[in-house]
Amino acid sequence: MPIIEVKNLSKTYEYYKKAPGLLASVKSLFKREKLFTEAVKNVSFNIEEGELVGFLGPNGAGKTTTLKMLSGILYPSGGECRVLGFTPYDRKKEYQKQFSLVMGQKNQLWWDLPAMESFILNKEIYEVSDEDFKKNLDELVELLDIKDILDVQVRKLSLGQRMKCELIAALLHKPKVLFLDEPTIGLDVVAQKNIRDFIKKYNREKKTTIILTSHYMDDIKELCKRVVIIDHGGIIYDGQLDDLIKKYAPHKVLNITFNENGVSREDVEKFGQISKFNPYAVTIEVEREKVKEVAGAILNSNLPVDDILIDEVDIDDIIRKIFKK
Amino acid sequence: MKLSAYKIFRYLRIWWLQIRCGLMQRMAYPYNFYLMVVGVFVQMVLSIAFIDIIFKFVDNISGWTKEGAMMILASYMILEGLMWATCSFISGIQRNVRMGTMDMIITRPIDTQFLVSVWRADPEDWMRPFTALIIFGININGLGVWGASLFFNICFYFIMLFFGFLILYSITLFIKTVAFWVIEGSALWSLGDTVSKLSQYPTDIFFHKSVKMFFSIIIPVTFMTTIPVKILINGPKFSLMFYSFLLVLIFFIASRKFFHFGLKNYKSASS
Questions:
Q1: Which of A93, A105, A126 sits opposite B271 (nearest CB)?
Q2: How far apart are CA A21 and CA B239, in angstroms?
Q3: Which of A64, A67, A69, A91 to mutate to test the interface with B (most CBs of B within 10 A)?
Q4: pLDDT tens string for chain A (325 positions)?
Q5: ipTM score of the complex?
C-alpha cells in the first residue's frame, strides 16, 4: 500500500489585483478586483515506502504548495491526499510525529542560540526518550560531521552548517516521511554534495520516504530514480528519470575531438545533426538506435579522430525543453 | 488520569524550555538586555508617577483612593508582565501570518494554540510583576483591611487576578486571530494594546452606564483589574466571582474556537 496517496489534489489561491500608482491605491481601499490562481491542478500520484522522489519544476509550478498540503499546513481546494493513512490537514498529532518538513529558505532553529538548544526543545515536543535522543543525535552528528559546531550560535554558522543542523532537528524523532523543500538552495558545491550524500545514505539505511523539491538538476540526478515534473500546477511527467531521458531525448550525443589537422563542417554533418562545431571539437546528435553505427562509421572514416565519447543529452537541456513547450 | 498528568507535565516542561531559551537569547546580548530591563522599569516608574501626581490634587476619583488606584496599577502590571513574559508570541501572530513563519509551528505535534502562545517570550518583562509586588506591599496598609480578612482577601484577589489574566489572554487571542484574514494586522497590535492599557484605570471613572456595561460584558476590562482590587479591599463577593469565572469560560472557549477557525484559513507565504 502506498505511503503517500494523492488524488486530484488542487489548490487555488485568491489575490487582489492592484494597478500601480497612488490613485489606484486609493481606489483599492474601496473596491478591489479579486483574482484566482490555480497553484495546483488535479495532481495525482502515489509514493511507496522508502522511495526518494524528486519534484522538479520552475518557480511557481506548485511544488512547495503540494508539499505544504502534504504537511497539513494548507487545506486543499479540491481532491484528497493521505500520508501514512492520515489526512494531513486534520493535523492529528499522531501524524505530525511521523513526518518532518525542512524548508531550505525557512529556519526552525533559535537564531541566537546554539543548535543544541533547539534540539533539546524538539526532543520534548516530539516526545523522544533520553536514550533515543542521544543515540539519534550521535548518529546524525557523525553522519553530518558537525560535532564541533553544536555549541556555536546558529547565526554564526555558514549556510551549509545551518542546513545540516536543520536536518538534524528534523530527523531526531526518526520520521517515516521527510519533505525537503529546496534543501540545497544557496549552498556551495561542496556543501551541496555533503547534503546529497547524507540524504542518499539516510534514505538507504532508514528507508525513510522522501520527497525532495529542487531547482538543481544535480540533486535530482544524484538522488532520485523517480521524478515528478510539475509545471503550472499540473504534473507533466511522473516516472523514472531514465525513462524521462529516453522519452524526451530520442537522441544521444557524440562528442568528437580531432587532432591538429581539424575538419570542416561538411566532413561531419553527414553523420548527424551538429549542435556544436569547431574544427577540433564537434558535438553531434544521433538517433539512439543508430549511435553505435554512426560512431563506428566516424572511426572508420578518414577523419583525424583523436577521441570520441557517447553521452546522453544533458538532462538540464531536456528539462528546459519541457518547460519551454 | 495518569495520561492527563503526564500531558500537563509535558506542556509545563515545554513551556519552561521556551522561557529558558528566551532568557538565554536575551542574555546573549547583555547590553540590550540591560537596556530593555531599564526601559521597562522607567515605563513603570512613569505610570506610578502619573497616579501619584493626580492624587496630589484630589483625594479620590469615583470613590477610589490613591492606594486603591495604585493597586489597580499594580494589578495591570502583573497582568501585562505575565502576558509579555510568558506568551508574548501571541502578540506577533500577525507578523508570523504575514511572513509565513507559522508553518513550522503548525506542523509540530503539540497544541498549536499553546505553542503559538509560548513560542517566544520577553523575559525582561518579569520586571513588571516584580515591581507590582513592591507597589502591592507599599500600598496594602492603606486599604484599611487587616488581619485574617486581609489574608483571605489577598487569596481571593489573586484568584480573580488569574481570571483577569485569562480574560486578557482570550481577548488578545481573539483580536490577533483576525490576522489570518487581514494578513497585515499591525492595527490589531494597537487594538490589543489599547484593551490592555484600559485595565490600568478603575472602570468606575467612566460615568456613562453604557460604557460601564460595555467594559463589563463585551470587553470585560472591569474584571481584569477593577473587580479583583475591589475584592481585595471589600472582601469576596461570590456572585461577582462566579460571573468572572463564567466570563473566563466563555471568552477562553470562544477565543480558542475562533483561533482554530482562523488557523484553517492560514495560507502560508511564498518561500
A1: A105
A2: 59
A3: A91
A4: 899 999 999 999 888 777 788 888 888 788 888 888 889 999 999 999 999 999 988 888 889 999 999 999 999 999 999 999 999 999 999 999 999 999 988 888 999 999 999 999 999 999 999 999 999 999 999 999 999 999 999 999 998 899 999 999 999 999 999 999 998 888 888 888 889 999 999 999 999 999 999 878 788 888 998 999 998 889 999 999 888 877 777 888 889 999 888 888 888 888 888 988 989 999 998 888 888 899 999 999 888 999 998 887 777 777 777 777 6
A5: 0.85
DSSP sequence for A96-143: HTTEEEEETT---S-TTSBHHHHHHHHHHHTT--HHHHHHHHHHHHHH
Number of helices (H), then strands (E), belonging to chain B: the values are: 13, 0
Is residue A180 within 8 Å of A212, Cβ to Cβ?
A: yes
Which B residues 14-73 touch A at CB under 8 Å? 14, 17-18, 21, 24-25, 28-29
B3 touches chain A (CB under 8 A): no
Put simply, the answer to whether A121 touches B10 (Cβ < 8 Å) is no
Does B5 contact chain A (CB < 8 Å)? no
Handedness of CA A147, A153, A156, A160 (dihedral sign): positive
Strands A99-103 and A177-181 come out as parallel
Q: Say if CB A114 and CB A169 are below 8 A apart.
A: no
Q: Across-strand partners of A235?
A: A230
Q: Which amino acid is at B22?
A: G
What global pTM score does this model have?
0.84
Answer for the pair B91, B120: CB distance below 8 angstroms, yes or no: no
Within 10 Å of residue A59's Cβ, how many Cβ atoms? 8
**Beta carbons within 10 angstroms of residue A81's beta carbon:** 22
Closest by Cα among A281, A276, A268 to A308: A281
- Interface check B2 vs A, CB under 8 A: no
Best to test chain B binding among A89, A102, A110 (most B CBs inside 10 Å): A110
Half-sphere exposure of B150 (CA within 13 A, CB side): 11
* Cβ A231 vs Cβ A199: under 8 Å: no
A chain contacts of residue B264, beta-carbon cutoff 8 Å? 75
Domains and CATH numbers, chain A: 4-246 (3.40.50.300), 250-324 (3.30.70)
What distance in Å separates residue A179's CA from the closest CA in chain B? 12
Residues of chain A with C-beta less than 8 angstroms from the C-beta of B266: 73-74
Q: Amino acid letter at A313?
A: V
Distance (Å) from the C-alpha of residue B166 to the closest C-alpha of chain A? 24
CB-based contacts of B201-205 (< 8 A; 24+ apart in sequence): B201/B69, B201/B72, B202/B61, B202/B62, B202/B64, B202/B68, B202/B69, B202/B72, B202/B226, B202/B229, B204/B62, B204/B63, B204/B64, B205/B61, B205/B62, B205/B64
Q: What are phi and psi of A102, to 5 degrees?
A: -120, 125
The answer to whether B14 contacts A97, with C-beta atoms less than 8 Å apart, is no
